[in-house]
Amino acid sequence: MSAGRGRGPLLLTGAAGAVLALAAGAPTWVTGSVPTATGTAAVVATGRDGAPAATALALVSLAAVVASTLGRRLARTVAALVLVLGGAGTVLASLAVATAPQDALAAPARAASGTTGAVLAGEPSVRPWPVVSAAGGALVLVAGAGVLLRSRRWAREGDPAATSTRHERDATRIRTAPAPGDDPAAAWDSLTHGEDPTR
Fold first, then answer.
1. How confident is the model over 115-136, as a mean pLDDT?
2. CATH-assigned architecture of domain 3-158
3. How far apart are CA 125 and CA 105, in angstroms?
4. Using CA atoms in the order 45, 46, 47, 50, what is the torsion angle rounded to 10 degrees?
5. H or E segment at 31?
6. Cβ–Cβ contacts within 10 Å for residue 149, how many?
7. pLDDT at res. 163
8. Which of 33, 108, 158, 179 has the smallest number of CB atoms closer than 10 Å to its CB?
9. Above 80 in pLDDT, residue 153?
10. Pairing state of beta strands 125-126 and 39-46?
11. What is the pTM of this model?
12. What's the per-residue H, E or C state across 93-107?
């Protein structure tokens, strides 16, 4: 498998994971209710409200996928590290909402009740979207780890960028190498022996 073909599926996986995490952040993740002066009020939190870090890291991961397709080996290594960290952060931020949904509703509950010490009325309800977002983050993490682990092997197998750089260096050395006719000493020796140095 060539370097380009091997890298392509991994980057597509990373892009798909980042897009999945971004899309999962839009719907409502957690619902609940909070007592108010007139009864109870429903409160909700979307993924972007309850886990803003997951959305931000998914955006960063998507940018890292693009950077990995454009840069050379060092840039790809940095982008792969960003994918690993971004994917892991997306997973953690998403699962934090799934395991502690009351924290995601803290700000909406305070706004609805008008008090700083609002307490939810009953247990909040968690929808599947935090798990979907975490799955997207896991795809990003796997893609970044794959690029990171295989980048050196791809370079040995003929990465087009690395090959192009080697060819440019070789061409430069060929252009700068002195031709035999440009050596004054060799031309003088040819004249001494009765030879035409311009031939």
1. 90
2. Up-down Bundle (1.20)
3. 10
4. -20
5. strand 28-36
6. 11
7. 47
8. 179
9. no
10. unpaired
11. 0.72
12. HHHHHHHCHHHHCHH
